[in-house]
Amino acid sequence: MTSKIHSLNDTYELNNGVKIPVIGLGTWQTPDGEVAQKTVENALDLGYRLIDTAAAYGNEESIGRGIKVSGVNRHDLFVTTKLWNDHHGYQKTKAAIDESLTKLDLDYLDLYLIHWPNPAPVRDHWAELNAESWQAMEEAVQAGKIRAIGVSNFRRKHLAELLKTAKIRPAVNQIYLNPSDMEEDVTAYNKELGILSEAYSPLGRGDLFANETVVSVAQHYDKSPAQVLLRWSLQHGFVPLPKSVHRERLESNLQVFDFTITEEDMAKLDGLHGAGKLANDPDQTDF
Questions:
Q1: Is 52:30 a contact under the CB 8 Å cutoff?
Q2: How would you list the strands of the sheet with 239-241, edge to edge?
Q3: Catalytic annotation, pick one of 12, 57, 176, 189
Q4: On the CB side of 36, how many CA atoms lie within 13 Å of its CA?
């Protein structure tokens, strides 16, 4: 557990030496077009430097425009996107990487992730296709198209299988992480392997804001439930990716560096397993 994160400018060093900001903007369900573009512009204006999207979100082009219009130096940004389930395999992954670069209008990606380990259509040969996709991703790193590669929604068995053939160890595993589901087995394995755990849905799915324990802890620190949940993530050493399209909430989500949750209160939050939704089992999804 760490409470040594003091500012928005703090970073973690990934296992390949690349630095990643400690908090970022998630853009799942952010509508393509003006909303996505303006959200990115607002976020960058407020000081966010990590922007997380995915091919499946359908908003890469708008996010790319938001980055361009913002005027922020590309080298000061950390942009993540992800490989969707219909592009697993060597050739398809190569094409998907180039397509994302084109849509985002970027020369390189800071992080590229396999979005899901075991898509329904390829459930009988998922490990083989992940190995192929990973090879294409490793080649993209060598070619300078990607700075770091990783995975999302991978459990222990998926990571172990990938590591049988991987030449580059995943730098990140982005998973569903909040007090309702800490995914302890996955985060422990990530830590053991030197893989950073990123938290998508760090605020839950809206189901934790009214939780009695979360509200009580928030009142104690004169903070909002969202701010306490984000601070909880930071103190566990996770990178939270909160989502919002509202500037005031984007700003509020950054006001998490001026307080520290005590060990006692962290333990209370850690005890909330099942208080909200749990992570989807990647081996049981229907997509």
A1: no
A2: 25-26, 50-52, 78-83, 109-114, 146-152, 172-176, 196-200, 239-241
A3: 57
A4: 24
Query: Could you tell me the pTM of the whole model?
Result: 0.97
Give, in order, the Cα–Cα distances in Å from 85 to each of 31, 133, 148. Answer: 20, 11, 20
Q: For position 5, what pLDDT does the model report?
A: 74
How many Å separate Cα 150 from the centre of its chain?
Answer: 10
pLDDT for 3 beyond 80: no
Q: Based on the residue annotation, tell me whether 108 is a catalytic residue of this protein.
A: no
For 170-216, the pLDDT digits (tens) are 999 999 999 999 999 999 999 999 999 999 999 999 899 999 999 99
Q: What is the dihedral of CA 113, 202, 47, 32, to 10 degrees?
A: 60
Is residue 40's pLDDT more than 90? yes
User: Hey, what are 246's tokens?
Assistant: 């509202």
